[in-house]
Specification:
The chain is mainly α. It contains 1 helix and no strands. It has a domain of about 30 residues. The longest helix has 17 residues. The radius of gyration is 14 Å and the shape is elongated.
Length: about 50
């Protein structure tokens, strides 16, 4: 079997880089993203 590695770089931001998420909401969102990625065996190097 061959081995394949695909790298993706994605960046999301708001207009004028305005902060629209509270710290608590951001923490919950990042936790959800990380858990979803873990279930699907997706490696996330950095999330902030």
């Amino acid at each position: 079997m061959s081995y394949v590695k695909v790298w993706r770089h994605a960046v999301w931001g708001t207009k004028n880089r305005e902060h629209v998420l509270s710290k608590d909401t951001q923490k919950n969102l990042f936790h959800h993203i990380k858990e979803n990625a873990k279930e699907k065996e997706i490696y996330i190097e950095e999330l902030y």
